[in-house]
Amino acid sequence: MTHLRRNTVWSGTVLCLVALLLTPHLAFAAPQGPSLPLSLCAPAQNTFTLDINNPYFPLPVGQVWAYSGKEQGQTVQLQITVLDATETFHFGGGQNVTTRVVEEVEWTDTNANGVIDRPGELIEESLNYFAQTAQPAVSPGTVCYFGENVAIYENGVIVSNEGAWRADGRKGLPGTAPGIFMPSNPLETVGVTFQQEVAPGVAMDEATIVRTGSTVRVPAGTFSDAITVRDFNPLDGSRGTKLYAPNVGLVRDGPLDLISYSAPLNPNP
Questions:
Q1: Domain chopping of the chain, boundaries
Q2: Across residues 236-242, what is the average pLDDT?
Q3: Cα angle 53, 56, 58; round to 5
Q4: Which of 93, 99, 134, 216 has the fewest Cβ atoms surrounding its Cβ within 10 A?
Q5: For 2-23+33-261, CATH number?
Q6: In this structure, is the dihedral angle defined by the CA atoms of residues 241, 82, 68 and 262, taken in order, positive or negative?
Q7: Contact at 8 Å (CB) between 64 and 262?
């Protein structure tokens, strides 16, 4: 998701090849510094809730965020919707975790009208699965990422499901586990790296909060006290930058800016 993390295949592959050719000794360098333990999201050590109200990544049912920006001279749109749907993950020892389903749709908007006018404009669709740790837990309020279903398009046809994974290993991937998508206290974890995806060889994105207290101006408004998150894909060496604002969530994803969101969010539901 990471769409929430954005995997634009048609541009990312080129960028990664350039990085390898120009700076092969740096392309796969992981972020330095301390890391959060994956136990923060381990099913055996936590309980979970669908009431995802982390101020920097709130997911109330029905919320819709719309983003737009330019990539390679084309207008790209991204829409994220919190669905009134759940997905249950089954872990060893009879432990089950029910997650919230978040849909992402990304497309090339050829006439910049904000809608998908033809199937050939689709870039990617995904369903992402999240839950938040609850009391008692290692760190209540941590948003945990349990995987995603991915469909990548070319000319209106699904050509790949690359990047799909499940934390309970049901896609036949060994070593999968829930990742830490947003720490419970992000303002206290500046410089700390956390693994958002745990699917060896398939999806291994890491993130580091590098700045707090920023003011971000995007078409949807001006947001203060934002945090800056830099993510890193150790599988191909690619990097990205995202900004999250309190009680709104993602407001900038690389070249894409938030242009609208459906309703003000209640920080204390």
A1: 2-23+33-261
A2: 96
A3: 30
A4: 93
A5: 2.40.360
A6: negative
A7: yes
CA–CA distance, 132 with 254 (Å, rounded to integer): 25
With beta carbons less than 8 A apart as the criterion, state whether 195 and 203 touch: no
Q: What is the CA radius of gyration of the chain?
A: 18
Q: How far apart are CA 39 and CA 138, in angstroms?
A: 7
Which residue in the block uniquely carries the two structure tokens 């003000």?
264
Closest-CA residue to 129 (of 184, 62, 197): 197
Residues in a beta bridge with 95: 91
Residues 38-53 have pLDDT tens digits of: 999 999 999 999 999 9
> Of 230, 215, 228, 198, whose CA–CA distance to 129 is shortest?
198
Token reading at 17? 């090849």
CA–CA gap between residue 136 and residue 27 (Å, rounded): 40
- Cβ-proximal residues to 2 (8 Å cutoff; 6+ apart), any chain: 128, 145, 148, 196, 197, 203, 205, 231
- CA 150, CA 242: separation in Å to the nearest integer? 21
Q: Note the pTM of the prediction, 2 decimals.
A: 0.87
Cβ burial of 225 (10 Å; 0-12, 13-18, 19+) is middle
pLDDT per position as a tens digit, 53-75: 999 999 999 999 999 999 989 99
